[in-house]
Design a protein that fits this description.
Elements: H1 3-10, E1 13-24, E2 27-38, E3 42-46, H2 53-60, E4 68-73, E5 77-78, H3 84-89, E6 92-95, H4 107-114, H5 121-126, H6 131-143, H7 159-171, E7 177-181, H8 189-202, E8 207-211, H9 215-221, E9 224-229, E10 232-237, H10 239-243, H11 246-252
Parallel strand pairs: 3-8, 3-9, 6-7, 7-8
Antiparallel strand pairs: 1-2, 1-4, 4-5, 9-10
Helix pairs in contact: 4-6, 4-7
The structure holds adenosine-5'-triphosphate.
Keywords: ATP-binding, Nucleotide-binding, Transport
GO molecular function: ATP binding
InterPro entries: ABC_AA/LPS_Transport, ABC_transporter-like_ATP-bd, ABC_transptr_urea_ATP-bd_UrtD, BCA_ABC_TP_C, P-loop_NTPase
Length: about 270
């Protein structure tokens, strides 16, 4: 893609959320939370436990319904009025923390059953693949770094490889927005680095929101960061800006989690 075209796309908004609230009985898990995302942006969502990060991802993919606010996707889809399957069909893909791969299918077959055109597990046994479908799977295998594992049963993959496979499976749906919840949890340092590079690759194809607690990882791979606290927006900016924000420091004081400013040596 030409540089000019890429920067034009980057400035387009794919997600506009204003004053979004989610109520569980009398408790406001999201409290008038506002958030915007551009096309091809890799955006990290951080905040202490219970800040509302997962709830926000749940609202975006339709798992949880908002009680107030505006949730506009690609300028035309009102997510608050759509069902989970409709949201997925219109381009929001979600990878949950626990892998949901098919353990007894091969890596290749896992990607095959996840393909947009495919109807599901049964079709893999009956339909043969076209050249272009084969090519799509081959390309995806290359992107997630599992070409050499393509014939391995998914159950025999390492923890990191399972996570990449699942990301690949979501990508086979060709989402415009990818939602990831703590993608590096339980990974080795080497696997973390591979995941960071993978995210940079994937943002060429879609926008990405990552919920993450590992501040070193966020510092290394983030462009923009949003800090949430008690269901609301605390601050937003580059990791450096966020690290220097006094409110952010206060919120993290006295908590178990590593504050964002602790990841930088000498600051
Ligand atoms: N289904 C639910 N019913 C009642 N309360 C809920 C429900 N889901 C989440 N909550 C509450 O909403 C708040 C926000 O939870 P959420 O999981 O979104 O936070 P989080 O920022 O993702 O936290 P963590 O980093 O620990 O995963 C928490 O206080 C949580 O207990």
């Amino acid at each position: 893609m030409k540089k000019k075209e890429l920067s034009r796309q980057q400035s387009k908004k794919i997600l506009q959320c204003e004053n979004v609230s989610v109520k569980f009985d009398d408790f406001l898990a999201l409290n008038s939370f506002s958030f915007q995302l551009k096309e091809h942006e890799l955006h990290f969502l951080i905040g202490p436990n219970g800040a509302g990060k997962t709830t926000f991802l749940d609202v975006l993919c339709g798992k949880t319904k908002s009680s107030a606010g505006k949730l506009l996707f690609k300028k035309e889809y009102d997510l608050s009025k759509m069902k989970e399957y409709q949201i997925a069909r219109h381009g929001i893909g979600r990878k949950f923390q626990a892998p949901s791969i098919f353990p007894h299918l091969t890596v290749f077959e896992n990607l095959e059953v996840s393909m947009k055109q495919k109807k599901g597990l049964f079709s893999i046994l009956t339909a043969s693949l076209s050249d272009s479908e084969n090519e799509r799977i081959t390309n995806q295998l290359r992107t997630i770094g599992l070409t050499n594992e393509k014939d391995k049963k998914a159950i025999n993959l390492s923890h990191g490889q399972k996570q990449w496979l699942e990301i690949g499976m979501v990508m086979m749906q060709e989402p415009d927005l990818l939602l990831l919840d703590e993608p590096i949890a339980g990974m080795t340092e080497e696997e973390e680095e591979t995941t960071g590079h993978l995210l940079r690759e994937l943002k060429k194809e879609c926008s990405i929101i990552v919920v993450e607690h590992d501040m070193e990882f966020v510092e290394k791979y983030s462009e923009r960061v949003t800090v949430m606290h008690e269901g609301s927006l605390l601050c937003e900016g580059s990791m450096r800006e966020v690290q220097q924000n006094e409110q952010v420091m206060e919120v993290y004081l006295g908590r178990k989690e590593v504050p964002p400013y602790a990841a930088t040596s000498g600051t």
